Amino acid sequence: LLTVAIMVLKTALTELLGIKHPVIQGGMQHVGFAEMASAVSNAGGLGILTALSQPTPEDLRKEIRRCRTMTPNPFGVNLTILKALIPADYDAFARVIAEERVAMVEVAGGSPAPYIKMWHDAGVKVLHKSATLKHALKAQKVGVDLIEVVGQEASIAGGNMDELVGAWVLLPKAVETLHVPVIASGASATGRQLAAALAMGACGITMATRFLATKEAPIHDNIKQHMALPEVDEKSTIIVLGTLNNATRVFRNDVSEKMVEIAAADENVDFSQLQPYADGKRTKKMWKETGDWNDSMWSCGQSVGLINDVPSCQDLLTKIVSDAEVRLNLGSSMVSKL
Length: 338
Fold this sequence. Notes:
- By secondary structure, this protein is of the alpha/beta class.
- The chain has helices at 12-17, 34-42, 57-68, 90-99, 116-121, 133-141, 167-177, 191-199, 209-212, 221-227, 254-265, 271-278, 280-290, 313-333, and strands at 23-25, 47-50, 75-81, 104-109, 125-130, 146-150, 182-185, 205-207, 237-240, 248-251.
- The chain has 14 helices and ten strands.
């Protein structure tokens, strides 16, 4: 284990949720299970279960309760609302989240408005994942507690190509415009980035891709080791489904490049032509069984270019927070009186 002595970074995020470090593990389909969420929470961050990784709302309830046996610390649930693409009983999933009184719900895709009162009455904090300032302002208006602004560098899903903006521009604009605490999301993987986000006014960061390459991530080890190779860099991702107004950043491989090729060859391409490549069952098989990183479409942010090892979640967060402390202290030392 790392034996680096670190200070505690106290922010609006850590205070609101009662966590040690201002780092959230983003929701990840077929990955956000109790093993992942509990490891992050035990390391001092906020682990996140992914609701739609569970077949039914009652299965989510069981997973929440299983996670509670694995960590005494707060954790949350991601609920991605995509009614047109993913038919699910969203009302029932939302109700389970309230009944189980998790620390926080991360809402992506649709609006949290129908469920805000129910969640708040249950003591659940609500974070909305917003890819644009327009969506962030709408979320703020309906009463969310936190807003996660997502730069196009992230493992985005469901974006409009014309609206994609990098975190370096989106984050400062968001913290100047919004009055609720802001979380930075967009290819974060290091303490330097955490320090930069805090310096710009954010109260924490969200990481998803970086947590894939950890010992506790419940995916095939072949994928983790491939992500950490020197030749896998920030150019190893690609955006698919952009022509369908569903821009999704994924790992660059034979499958994703074929999807881009099909879309480029036919301006009237529809999802049915791309569905065999984007099939979630194919991705789930890769994560759990084959470990063949080249045989499915899988979400991946540009932070993959910052990954060169596969540590435990504890060691990862210790290093990130320690590095952030160094950078913040260095920054403050540059301020002097004339």
